[in-house]
Design brief:
The complex is a heterodimer of chains A (132) and B (387). With 132 residues, chain A is mainly beta. Chain A has a domain at 52-132: Beta Barrel (OB fold (Dihydrolipoamide Acetyltransferase, E2P)). Helix content of chain A is 9%, strand content 43%. Chain A is built from two helices and eight strands. In chain A, the strands form two sheets. Chain A has a five-stranded antiparallel sheet. In chain A, strands 2-1-3 form a three-stranded antiparallel sheet. In chain A, β5 and β6 form a beta hairpin. The radius of gyration of chain A is 16 Å and the shape is globular. In chain A, 38% of the residues are buried. Chain B is α/β, with parallel strands linked by helices and 387 residues long. Chain B is 37% helix and 19% strand. Chain B has 13 helices and twelve strands. Chain B has a ten-stranded mixed sheet, sandwiched between helices. A two-stranded antiparallel ribbon of chain B has the order 5-6. In chain B, α4 packs across α13 (336-352) and α7 packs across α10 (288-297). Chain B is globular. The two termini of chain B are 21 Å apart. The chains are: A mainly beta (132), B alpha/beta (387). The A-B interface holds A 1-2, 10, 31, 57-69, 72, 74-75, 77, 79, 86-91, 102, 113-114, 121, 123 and B 121, 124-125, 128, 134-142, 144-145, 148-150, 152-153, 156, 197-203, 247-250, 254.
Chain lengths: 132, 387
């Protein structure tokens, strides 16, 4: 799917959860934005690493996969609201014996995302936080 | 700004038209529309073509040129308009703006998509390119997956049920059964929908619109000249277009399309009507949940009551506002670039009283609602009978 440079360029975000933050209004963006939509030219964007913890806003079990994801069917995608206030879409992982619900707490982990052609793409997935 | 009217419409059969090429289907829709308007090719001054992705579906770009060429209409200006599944609705809007501005008089707005020349996975991948490639498609999202996230959240917030979503599909197949150009003429039951295979939970196969080929075409003229061409011109009373974020994760709400709300507000304001005056609407039901959200966002009912409104039959013949009498994207088919134009074709037929067994009796005000992607673009038009 992705040509190597296109994937490589986003590695800081995909491997290390580097988003951005507007110094003017304090809003955090993950995935990163390069201009603050609230402050626009008055804003001042800087890199910002998110902690990668949040709660599930919605989820779906995918039976009809996207290209490159055929081997993973069925897989669960969730829209997650991070502690920093931004939302991100991620696949859920390590779900053995876990029934997914809206509101579940999750944390981002490093995983293989997809394999297609010559590039094997790694990045973040999210797993349930074990309540002890 | 001049007022604009539709003086002719044309539409091909929708479906898997394996025997027909991209070129053949747009010419068929165009010939029908010109015949309906009683004009010749020489009268056309400009064309706007809604097409999402001929590049991915048939590996052909530069289709505006191709269409003018194959229609024998060189050298008139022809412009392709792309806004994913809202390409057709947006092409219509650009054509309206062209006539309204006084730049041109007789203008074509058409839409065409040939989706069945690639395997299903190829079509799914092409459609997914209307989502955020870096942060949605990259993690495995497809269009059904993104709408499934909205559906699950709508169920969570408002108690919408899978049965209510299924009722949208049942109604739209019933209507498609009455529409000779529809892809699916088969009637289905709520049980059929609920038992169909899961695509992305809670959405099942029969909650989803199909992959289709098809083309549609309308002819626009200044409203004060429209009666020269036809006894039944249909006035474009209002036009609204709005954008929202490309990706779902940047939205404030998963259960409301702000672009729809805003495009509708603009269209209602221009038409000087309130939502309750709309008698018939073609809304963007790419998935059953999308129709439920659309009737809420268009103001036909309160937020969260779309499922209930559907269940009570208020969107069916005899109901408060008849929704998707053509069969909608679900029943009639969804050749993405053609959809927005096809919606206008249906509303024109309804307001002329020419919609056959699916006719909404006495309809004078109709609406179309076309969405691109998961709601990054919305285009709403209000049409009126001219007396």
């Amino acid at each position: 799917m992705a040509a190597p440079p296109r994937f490589w360029r986003e590695i800081p975000s995909r491997y290390n959860l580097i988003g951005t933050r507007c110094r003017n209004c304090g809003k955090v963006f993950f995935p990163p934005r390069y201009i603050c939509p609230n402050c626009r030219r008055k804003g001042n964007i800087e890199p910002y690493k998110v902690k990668g913890r949040g709660k599930i806003v919605s989820f779906t079990e995918v039976h009809s996969p996207a290209p490159g994801f055929e081997k993973q069917v069925p897989y669960v995608l969730a829209l997650i609201e991070l502690e920093e206030g931004c939302r991100v879409l991620a696949q859920l992982t390590d779900l053995a014996g876990h029934e997914v619900k809206i509101g579940d707490e999750v944390e981002m982990v490093f995983r293989k995302i997809s394999e297609e052609g010559e590039v094997i793409c790694y990045g973040y997935k999210a797993r349930p936080v074990k309540s002890s | 700004m001049r007022k604009v009217a539709i003086i002719g419409v044309g539409i091909t059969k929708f479906g898997e038209l394996w025997w027909s090429s991209f070129r053949e289907i747009f010419i068929e829709a165009g010939i029908q529309a010109l015949g309906d308007a009683g004009i010749s090719g020489r009268d056309i001054e400009a064309m706007y073509i809604g097409n999402m992705s001929a590049g991915q579906f048939i590996r052909q770009e530069h289709v505006a040129c191709l269409i003018a060429d194959q229609a024998g209409l060189n050298p008139i200006p022809c412009t392709r308009v792309e806004a994913a599944c809202a390409s057709g609705g947006l092409a219509l809007r650009q054509a309206i703006i062209d006539v309204a501005s006084g730049m041109h008089n007789i203008v074509i707005a058409a839409g065409v998509e040939k989706m069945s020349d690639v395997p299903t996975e190829g079509a799914v991948g092409a459609l997914a390119s209307a989502s955020d490639q870096e942060w949605e498609a990259f993690v495995g999202a497809t269009f059904p997956a993104l709408y499934a996230l909205m559906a699950r959240r709508h169920m969570h917030e408002f108690g919408t049920t899978e049965e209510q979503m299924a009722m949208v599909a049942v109604k739209n197949h019933d209507f498609a059964n009455k529409n000779p150009v529809a892809q699916y003429r088969s009637r289905i039951t709520v049980e059929d929908v609920l038992k169909s295979p899961p695509v992305c939970t809670p959405l099942k196969l029969l909650d989803c619109s199909p992959i289709s080929d098809g083309a549609a075409c309308v002819v626009l003229a200044p409203a004060d000249e429209a009666k020269k061409y036809t006894d039944t011109p249909i006035l474009v009373a209002g036009s609204g277009h709005a954008t929202d974020t490309l990706a779902l994760h940047s939205r404030k709400s998963l259960t409301r399309l702000d672009a729809t709300v805003e495009a509708a507000r603009r269209a209602y304001e221009m038409a000087h009507i309130s939502p309750s005056q709309v008698q018939v609407a073609e809304v963007h039901d790419c998935f059953t949940i999308a129709e439920i959200m659309a009737i809420e966002d268009l103001g036909f009912c309160k937020k969260g009551e779309g499922g209930k409104m559907t269940e009570e039959g208020q969107t069916n013949l005899g109901g408060r506002i008849v929704v998707n009498p053509s069969g909608g994207l679900k029943g009639k088919g969804h050749p993405v670039g053609a959809t927005g134009i096809a919606q206008a074709v249906e509303i024109v037929l309804q307001l002329r009283g020419e919609a056959g067994k699916r006719q909404v009796e006495g309809a004078e005000i109709g609406l179309t609602h076309n969405v691109g992607g998961t709601g990054g673009t919305a285009v709403v038009h209000v049409f009126r009978r001219m007396n």
